[in-house]
Structures are given as C-alpha cells and as structure tokens.
Amino acid sequence: MLRLDDVTKEFRIGAFGGKSVAAVQGVSFEVVPGEVVSLIGESGSGKSTIGRMILGLNPVTSGSITFDGLPVRAGKEYYRRVQGIFQDPFSSFNPVFKADRVFTMIKEAYYPSVSGPEWTAKVEESLRDVRLNPGQVLGKYPHQLSGGQLQRLLIARALLLDIKLLVADEITSMLDASTRIDVLNLLAELKIRGLSVLYITHDLSLGNYLAERTVVLRRGSVVEMGPTERVFGDPLHPYTRELLSAVPRLHETWDDAVPVETCLYHERGGGAGGLAEAEPGHFVACARLDTC
Ligand SMILES: Nc1ncnc2c1ncn2[C@@H]1O[C@H](COP(=O)(O)OP(=O)(O)OP(=O)(O)O)[C@@H](O)[C@H]1O
C-alpha cells in the first residue's frame, strides 16, 4: 500500500534560492492494493510534484512516503514495486538507442542471471500483455513508434518488474482520442490484475472513467477526497464544485462564482490543516478558504 503522511514540498526559487514556493502542503492519502486513485486539480496545484516525490525524483521537504512500509530511499527494492510513466513518452527514450533498450536496462539492473531466451520470452509476454505485437515494436527506434506504442512499451517495462503501483502522470494527454481510450482500458485491465494506479490528470472525465477514489488538490493541499462517485456526484467543497462545473465564467472572479454558505469542515469539527469526514470515506477541507 502506498502511504503519504503529511507530505510537504517547498522549492527554492529566485536568483540565489533565497525564496521558496510551497508546492505541496501537508498532503496525506493512501492507495490500497488493486485500487485506482485519481489525483485531480488545476494546473499548478501540485499533482506532478506529488507524483515525482512518490517516484523519488524530487525529495520531500517533510513528511513521509512509503510503499508497504518501504521508504523511497530503499531504492531498488522500492522501485521493484513502484514505477511511473509520464505525459511525453518520447522524453522517456533516448532517441539514439532502440526503444527496447529500456528492457535491457531492466534486465541488467534486476535480472542479471536470467538467460537470454528466457528474458526474450518474458519481454514478449509483457508486450502482449499491453497489446503490442513484439514483431512490430522490438528493434525499432523511438521515432519509428507512435506515442501510444511508446506509452505501452513503458507500461510493459513496468510489468516486467511485477510492480504493485504505477504512477501515471497525464499519460494520455498527448495521445489522440482513440489511442487514449485504448491506454485507459489497458490501465483498467491492469487494475483487474491487482495493480494499483495513481492516475494524475487535469481531465476530470478521464479520472471519473477510471478511478474508484478521487483526491482533489488545490494549491498544494487536499480539499476533498473520497469515492469517485461521491466526489463527482455530491461534491462538498466549493473548489471541487467549481472544477466540476463547466467553463470558467470570465466576468466573475473565482470566489464570486462559488458562494460558500456552509462549511462541513467546521460543522464536523475538522482539525487545523486537516479534513473532516462528511460521510464514510468522504473527506472535505475547510471551505472558507482564505478567510479561515
Ligand atoms: N522544480 C521546481 N522549482 C520551482 N517550482 C516548481 C518546481 N516544480 C514545480 N514547481 C511549482 O510547484 C507548483 C506545483 O507544480 P506541479 O507541476 O506539481 O503542478 P501540477 O498540478 O502538476 O500542474 P500541471 O497540471 O500544469 O502539470 C507550481 O507552482 C510550480 O510552479
């Protein structure tokens, strides 16, 4: 199980790093085995920073991230369980090398004693698992493959490690509509096989399509989380409602657009910086926002 406990990330900015920006503040949530959780929020809300911290690409400033009790710093043991894929599949490949080099790197790092033929069989099996024809993708350079094929190749690479959690950060945003659905359906199949997925997206409909649970981020903090059908069907926090409502209204400021009559967080006695449980498993933050 993935567990984030009171995770905060501050980036040093400015010419001499004298200032800092709090990208993520006091975020806690879990992803249990076989569960797809979507992390949604507007641009700059901290989604990718959370994904990158889970993958050890950015260190946390405070708090902890563990998978089955293992911290990110456990290195190889952690990455055997947790892998990520990102928006731009082309950036994950070195254009100078054939795309299937990503498999060789996994073999060298994790399975040095597996024989050549056995390894080839394993690679081909994982390619078929992601509905790729080995004959069509092996031995090709990245530019000879489509974005959808490269994304699947990266998922196949993760499957070779028999991972438990896949962090998928905007992985369909550069794909055309039909390939996008193929990749989403593939994630849904992986879930049936017991894989957990943290699906990072700003596309609410895709999150709704795939995830059992949804975590809503605003300015680096969780404002609401719970079963997807409850968060989408009965959003409690005004920010969630705003996200779910259609197009922004240009003549209104955000606060004007969403009047806040009541605040479940206060009604239910939520603690400072925390979330109140409005109904089983459905949590909401203070809705008085900046005046609180
Ligand atoms: N390396 C960095 N140095 C300084 N600030 C950063 C860095 N990475 C992210 N930030 C800042 O942290 C905040 C959160 O960024 P992040 O990329 O996590 O948001 P996001 O929700 O993933 O946005 P998007 O949907 O546009 O990708 C933003 O204000 C961003 O400018």
Question: How would you briefly describe this protein structure?
Answer:
The protein is an alpha/beta fold.
Describe it for me?
- InterPro entries: AAA+_ATPase, ABC_transporter-like_ATP-bd, ABC_transporter-like_CS, Oligopep_ABC_C, P-loop_NTPase.
- This is ABC transporter ATP-binding protein.
- Pfam families: ABC_tran (PF00005), oligo_HPY (PF08352).
- The protein contains 12 helices and 12 strands.
- It is of the alpha/beta class.
- It has a domain at 2-81 and 163-234: Rossmann fold, CATH 3.40.50.300.
- It has an 8-stranded mixed β-sheet, with helices on both faces. A 4-stranded antiparallel β-sheet has the order 2-1-4-5, covered by helices on one side.
- Helix 4 (116-129) packs across helix 6.
- The longest helix is centred in the middle third of the chain and has 16 residues, at 177-192.
- Adenosine-5'-triphosphate binds next to strand 1, strand 2 and helix 1.
Secondary structure layout plus pairing:
Layout: E1 2-13, E2 19-31, E3 36-40, H1 47-54, E4 62-67, E5 70-71, H2 76-79, E6 82-85, H3 101-110, H4 116-129, H5 134-137, H6 147-160, E7 165-169, H7 177-192, E8 196-200, H8 204-210, E9 213-218, E10 221-227, H9 228-233, H10 238-244, H11 254-257, H12 264-267, E11 276-279, E12 282-284
Parallel strand pairs: 3-8, 3-9, 6-7, 7-8
Antiparallel strand pairs: 1-2, 1-4, 4-5, 9-10, 10-12, 11-12
Helix pairs in contact: 4-6
Adenosine-5'-triphosphate binds next to β1, β2 and α1.
